[in-house]
Amino acid sequence: MSIVERLEKLDRRLIFVLILLAVVIPLVRPIGFKIEVSEPVQQLYEAIESLNPGSRVIISCDYDPSTMPEIYPMNQALARHCFSRDLKIVGMGLWPQGVPLGQASMEQAAEEYGKSYGVDYVNLGFKAGGIVVVSSVAENIPATYPQDYAGRPVSELPIMDGVRNFDNIELIISLSAGDPGVREWVMIGQGRYGKTVGAGVTAVSAPAFYPYLQAGQLVGMMGGMKGAAEYEILMEGTGTASRGMDAQSVAHGLIIFFILFANFFYLVGRRKMPWKR
Amino acid sequence: MDGVGRSLVRYWRSALPLVIVLWSVSGAASGATTPDTVTPEPPSPPSNVAAEDRSNDAGGSVVISWTKSADDGGGKESVVEYLVLRSTSLAGEFQQIGSVRSGVAQFVDQNSIDGTPYFYMVRASDGVSLSLPEVSEAASSSAQWFHTGRTNILVAGALLSFLVLLFIRKAKRGEELYIRPIAGLEAVDEAVGRATEMGKPIMYVPGIMDMDDIQTIASMIILGRVARKAAEYETALLVPTSRSLVMSAAQETVKEAYLDAGRPDAFDADRIRYLTDDQFGYAAGVDGLMLREVPGAIFYMGAFYAESLILAETGHSTGAIQIAGTAMPSQLPFFVTACDYTLIGEELFAASAYLSKEPLLLGSLKGQDWGKAISIAILVGGVILVSFGMSKIVEWLTTR
Amino acid sequence: MSTNPGVWVAVIMTIGIFSFLYKDNPLYKFCEHLFVGISLGYYVALYWNNGVIPKLYIPLFRQHNYFYLIPGFLGILYFSRFVRKYAYLSRWPMAFVLGAGSGLSIPAILQARIIAQMRGTMSDTFTVSYVVMVIGVLATLSYFFFSREHKGFLKIASGIGIVYIMVGFGATFGYTVMARVSLLIGRAQFLLRDWLGIID
Amino acid sequence: MKKQIPLLITFVAGMVMLVQYFIPHRPFSEVYRLFNQWYLVVAVFAMILGIGNLIKIHSVRLRRRGSGWQYSIVLLCSLGVMGVAGLGWGIERGGFFDYLYWNMYYPLSSTMFALLAFFVASASYRAFRARTAEATLLLASAILVMLGRVPLGNYLWDRLPLLGDWIMSYPNMAGQRAIMIGIALGVVSTSLRIILGIERTYLAGR
Highest taxon of the source (chain C) (predicted)? Predict the structure, then answer.
């Protein structure tokens, strides 16, 4: 058996072990690469900085635990940022599984900044209906959400005093892992009602949202764990996302090596020893 | 408002601050002002208070805007909030309808009765004392019958609808609608031929979504073509599905294709199997099938998610020719690099319209094509105009 | 190492799923079905607490807003599909949902995904990047044009279009790899931090 | 009649939602708000139906002792426990339901997708080939973006992040925008056909 053939027959479990090591070793022994902040993340940060204290921000948790390593750190950083600027958070979710995630991140940040539920933040929970939920919230929030996620009437919560519709919301941020999510908030929230919309999305969907950024339909965007890490850096702290960046770097390096290495043999051996039989 | 009324308003507007001051001193106004507090000087008042109907809405809203107090973001920096008050007459009592934080110079009154004129008063507050008030001219809310900021959408929508309906009609009447040959379809035929030469079966993977997904429907149409070729070449065709409905649809399609090819006897329903609904369970099942049967050609047509690269990798390792087609943007890159040919997004739908000759599909495709052509024309024209400084078109494309 | 029983449960779940990497096995299948079952149970509880109670029970029985009987009745018709004779009634709610959703979407899509995109492509700042962008939008649009054979000018345009499509797919490829690696990092952080306690 | 009524419902619901975009006046504004609320109610039932279907599939598999019926027991039991926890004691944070969510649902769900990191790695070694000019271009752009987006790229060449950002903001954006316009045209024409009752595939079958 030639080298090329033997390399091709390599047990994939060996590759599994290599990628695991590429992730675990930098986590245990950090390298400390410097993290640069990209423009869309900076813009999102500034959109929050520019709000007046007391303004209400919708943070819509349109994701689930399967994408938590990417989006949950964004959720935490945003909640901390809002509370540090004395903004009020109206949490909700177009995905059913996002409700506990939004709640946990807000509770954590609230403890740190001494904020209380019902006054500085609320979690309205989940409603089925995707794009219609957005248009319904735009027209009438209390009719869409008569209760918060745990069944408390919203009329009893001070944060919702005088809140009727999108007129009382200054900024919307969708943390989105797919549909329904950013698309719906842009189409209805920004397009139809002229609200400012920002986004935190999984890396898988991030490239598709650059047209929205360029056309000004999104004020800013965090893409993937890297986007979350950048936001953590802007918040002058560190978090799970920035701690993961060394591992991300090494794993990328390994995968790029795999692609180049295998393609080198593919191109060299294509004529003499076809990769495919 | 007639001339007399206008001058009366002007008179009241100039006299009103005085009246209010007198009120405050006598303690008649809101409890926020007490004459002997530590801050002797209240913030300076906001100016240019204006109120007008919110345009293009269902009524019931008046927008009040003003120029910020000199002590907001400057001067003494003492303003904490602005109070907005409303009255139906200048002489009448003004009632507070809301407040906004300093730095904000706009408020929307969401509780106005259409047709009733209101006067709005805005006062700056430093938390202890209130500034002199400023009052707007009378404004009333109303509802509109047409949203003037959305004419462009109406035109675009009407045009696109017209084109789609026109072409569907033409197609139904049996007019020939030209669609360019899709390169991917030639690749499909070739792959079937190559598998036959190698004496290996063909595998067709229709994605993991159910029959209500348009990609699965398109996949079934292409399956018809593949099955026909397979029947002609007498090559075995395996179709593992992840939905029971897709399995029955696939069996129907393949049976019909074999009938068309004049080989109903060669049709074997057992080769079209339902594996499991679970995403990764299905991927593992198809992987196993690939390794056992070693197909010469593998087709991936339909809606794919994360399992795409598991399938494409195993397929690649068996040495089969692989042809993919999907409209899932996040999976397309993996298919492009792991397969020999890939139908990208709309090409999948175009291929199915081309094959089925279904008037609905053909007509819509044609209508959308015209939509694209018009978009290109507007883009080219717009880019040229704008670069010569004529930005009227940008304005026209702005929706409110 | 953690002494929290909850963490240990989570560790067993994690390892159970990862065992699929060795090969498909009963432990993985067990975990997979557990996952589907728990997520269904989650939906049941959430739809009840965030759906049925606030959207039906409260309007009907507390606020006595009997207008809600109409959508309530329409919704119940969904279940008619389990009775063969009345199965056709289940199309009514479907028809409402599809119709209303389509009606709401049409202008929103025209605005946000067509008109606003065209507007964003027009700019008076004339840079190399801008030219690259404009050519890209036009060329890619012409690649997906099916009414003419790709010959002559259209062939050049669609050829440029495929370059942009591939660069865009490359970006998606890179970002998707990034996303998958992030998910593994998340699990590794859980195992190393919450369970073994060797990182912070 | 069996077909006419659903077609009529679709038409009326679709037209009201569509027309209100252009006509803000009453009664359209009010019907629009009403339909929004109705939709949310009907959507609740649609979700319940989805759950019901899955429960049905697995109880049938269990009853008929179909392949892997033992796993259906696991599924139905875990569904029961989670459902009862949430219905009985609420979904408030800190409760038993929340405990199950964080210690079972969360690790299962996130590990399931973490598997993909391994598959991506092995596919990049075994399957991703520069077999055509297009695939070569794709891989080159992918490698630049993968390096540009992580700190390692910055370490290799300090302009790499800028190059990565440029690829994302111009060539990628342009291609994505054209694809977006194409897809949008397709969705609008499908929606239009549905409202006008030309597209009836959703009425077929079940």
Answer: Bacteria
